[in-house]
Request: fold
Amino acid sequence: MVRMKCILTDCVYYKEFPDKPGVGFCAHKDIMLHLSNSTCPLYRMDWAKKMAKAQKLRVRLKNKTNNT
Ligand code: SF4
Reply:
């Protein structure tokens, strides 16, 4: 486990500390080999996270259109 800042919160390897929401870390076992790269070659989109965000947006839009 490497505690580092990463803005790609939709990566499958991005995790948050359960007791510190918003504080993330990279859980990939090989991240130490890629720390000098400007882009992360280990990034993999987590479709479950994307779908959860899309579902929240869908509900917000539905509520917004129902209230107008
Ligand atoms: S693998 Fe790369 S993109 Fe994914 S959490 Fe780790 S540093 Fe971020």
